[in-house]
Amino acid sequence: MDLISPSSGLIFWQLFGFLALLFILIKFAWKPMLAALEERESTIDNALKAAEQARNEMANLKAENEKLLAEARLERDTILKKAHDASAKMIEEAKEEANKQGAQMIENAKAVIETEKKAALAEVKTQVATLTLEVTEKLLRKNLSDEKAQKDLVDGFVNELKLN
Amino acid sequence: MTRKFLALSLLISALLLSVSSAVFASSSETEESNESPTEFIMHHVKDSHEWHFFNIGHTHVTLPLPVITYAADRGLEFYMSSDFQNHDTHLFGEENAHNGIYIDSHEHLGRVDGGSIMDFSITKNVAMMFLVIGLVLWITLSAARHYKKNGAVSPKGAASIVEPIVIFVRDEIAEKAIGPKYKKFVPYLLTLFFFIWIGNLLGLMPGAANLTGNIAVTFTLAILTFILVNINGNKDYWKHVFATPGVPAPLLPIIVVVEFIGLFTKPFALMVRLFVAITAGHIVILAFIALVFIFESYAIGVVSTLMVTFINMIELLVATIQAYVFTLFTAMYIGGAVAEHAHDDHH
User: Fold this and answer.
1) Fewer beta carbons within 10 Å, N or C terminal of chain B?
2) ∠ CA A12-A18-A22 to the nearest 5 degrees?
3) Which residue windows are transmembrane per the record (chain A) (predicted)?
4) Which of A4, A10, A19, A26 would you mutate first to test chain B, the one with the most B CBs within 10 A?
5) Residue B106 near chain A (CB below 8 Å)
6) Does B190 touch chain A (CB under 8 A)?
């Protein structure tokens, strides 16, 4: 067993032992271990990427929310303004309608009153005429019961006629 | 803490230095040294057929290991290393032949009838290799079980030790040195790193074998890298070797030879670098320990212990660095073989 000349027996065992070690370790240690390490590294990478993405999304979402909020505010203002306008218009219209209806009613009432008045006047005239006729008849009957009174009346008519 | 420890050890050294000559004199008479320091160091650094831990007096505490031999005419045979030893001295030698086979004092197998025989023994380093493989399997499989059980979750237990290394090898070594096609090679690099690293660390344990500092081991690892690099070499890689672009025609024969030799010097450098780094570390540590036995002085013992502790800490670093370097260079050679490079960027 010299120091610097390799012995064949040891070379044989070393070759055998090391190759056995190599194959066992490749199959049962290095492959699962390197795979696990790689998996873990990719998991960490992905997690970091996902976090970055989430942050970006969050920022986007926030911006979008703000935009939406601004839009909503604008829309609310528009709607309020429209509602305001509509209500004002409705009030205006209602007023107008009421005025019109009132005027119409007054008109109608006036017409009715006129008609009633005319009817009443006609009635009154008829009554007056009837009364006058009755009075006149009574007077005539009484006044013309004597000759003289008749003659005076006729004279009176004749005088009047002459004047005309 | 360290300062206190240093001060204390210096004090003890000074105290003992006064009586050291007496100690030296008495001990050298009683204990006869049967091993020179070089033998002592080489015995620990080199491979062996038995696993020797320590001696208690004259009793050798060892683990006998299987001896497996193959000869064309005898077939496969199994023995124990203790069959070929003197039972008292635990020395191998031709005189202790068993069944026509002996192990000589340099731990080479021989046959009494002079025929050829091949040695497939489970030597100390092979046993150590099985220990290392077992430990690597235990650590990595328990880490892998965590992911299998819980899916792609954060690491816990063994997974929290293994995961950073896996990620380091994948991202800092494989991806940077190989480029976009790195994924295919990550398992090989990981296995290489863990085997060398755990082997280096276990090798530092007292009584452990010098596995990753054995040239046969580094040779095998380098050959595997060499094969992996060259079967994955693309058109650019081979063109670079046999028709190096940007080189004038008259120089081409020289360059091609150089490039061709370069194919082999790369794994050779891998082999030598790991072997030298680990073996040298062991030799330095053992040399400091051997100093104790050479001088047989308590003072030297204290200094040696301090130095050995210090070198051991450096060795912990070297164990990791060498595993990293071997893996990194393997990744770079693979990177050179699979890269689709534009030809004008260098040369």
Assistant:
1) N
2) 145
3) 12-30
4) A10
5) yes
6) yes
- Is A124 part of any domain? yes
Residue A41 is assigned to a structural domain of this protein: yes
A11 vs B contacts (CB less than 8 Å)? 216, 219-220
Residue B71 CB-density burial (10 A; 0-12 exposed, 13-18 middle, 19+ buried):
middle
List the single best residue of A5, A8, A18, A42 to mutate versus B (max B Cβ within 10 A). Answer: A18
Predicted ipTM of the assembly: 0.84
Establish if A153 belongs to a structural domain: yes
Find chain A residues with C-beta within 8 A of B130's C-beta. Answer: 17
DSSP A49-114: HHHHHHHHHHHHHHHHHHHHHHHHHHHHHHHHHHHHHHHHHHHHHHHHHHHHHHHHHHHHHHHHHH
**Number of folded domains in chain A?**
1
Cβ-defined contact of B46 to A2 (cutoff 8 Å): yes
Structure tokens at A152: 């005076």
Domain containing A105 equals: 32-163
Q: Distances from the Cα of B151 to the Cαs of A31, A50, B137, in angstroms?
A: 13, 21, 20
